[in-house]
Structure of TLC domain-containing protein:
Amino acid sequence: MNLKSLIILDAMNETALCVGSLLEHLHGLLWSESFWLPAGYTWKDVESTPVKPRPQFSDVYLAIPLGLLILAVRILFQSQVFRPLGISLGLKPVKTSQATKNNILEKAVQTRLLDKNGIMGLAKQVEWSEGQVKRWLRNYQRSRKPGLLVKFCESGWRFTFYSSAFVYGLLTLWGKPWLWDTSQIWAGHPNQPVTWDIRWYYIFELGFYWSLMLSQFFDVRRKDFYPMFLHHCATILLMTFSWLSSCFRVGTLILLLHDISDIFMEAAKMYNYLGKRYEIVCNSTFGIFTITWFITRLGVFPYIVFKCCWIDSFVQLPAPFPGLYFLNTCLVLLQVLHVYWTYLILRVLCTVATSNQPRDVRSSSEPSSEEETSKASVPNGVKPSPSCPNNHHHHLNNNHHHHLNNHHNHNSPFS
């Protein structure tokens, strides 16, 4: 081996040692007992035993394959249950012509060069007429929009999960002391035993958010792909933290409070997709959702959950630990989101009450392929009149929840 090879090998060894040292240091910071646990406790003190089971790292790992299983169940439910149900209720599968592959035009769509001058330039580049370019752009846009039947199936699956999770969570927590007396949330922390029903409740909820994150890669790509991806990552991180730091009691309350309002939200969206025949039921369900939202998100959550985390924890625990401040900060950010979403709900209610043609408060809402077809839009910036008979009822009926689609389709109680 020559001198040059020895020098390269020595540099590689030094790099490997530096990387190993850095990873070991990061591992120590990540699993620092002083961050995760109250002062005076070590990981050995909170180890799980057959007599006194506690949260384990393996529970977090189990949620990943469980998320894949939930994803498979979702596909089965959507294809075998909600798709036939939607068709029987009048929704039709949308057949749109697929745009031919064209890298130049696809790049133009991504950069939004769709004004009149831009289309003229594109037509010259691909040697097409302006009409051909417009038709290609319309087909391309329609092929990427989810139809009402697809949205109905997605909301149907989430309605099923949220309903099942809420019923199971309520039955599980009914006999637990901290559901009725929040001072019990911190009693014995962090040496609180975890029963099998609580363990599975948490793991299934965590697995569900893993499935939501994974499903983004094969679902119809939405405008909020990257924000929602970060949203799911943050959710998984916070649920994992609350579990491993033995803050699962407050976590179960938060999950229960959020699941109940999501049930009515998804139900209202399902009725909305079914059209005018279900408008009264849709409006009534949205009203129930709004009332439930105000009670749980602006009432119980800040006045009960905040109290037990910001007051009771500092009174009952021997000393606050950094992880507790991290958890409380996340709860404050969550409440800020609640207030923002409440503002959007109130805007919709005011618009519906004062206008015959309410406008969607969320310009970023994702239209369906049926909406694109009915608008008969062209990519040169020309938009149909909002008073068009084909669109009037859709704008009126969709206004109740459309602004919530991007924020609440995967609304997480932990982010």
Q: What stands out?
A: The radius of gyration is 26 Å. Residues 66-90+150-361+399-408 form one domain. The CA atoms of residues 7 and 401 lie 65 Å apart. Residues 356-366, 372-410 have pLDDT under 50 and may be disordered.
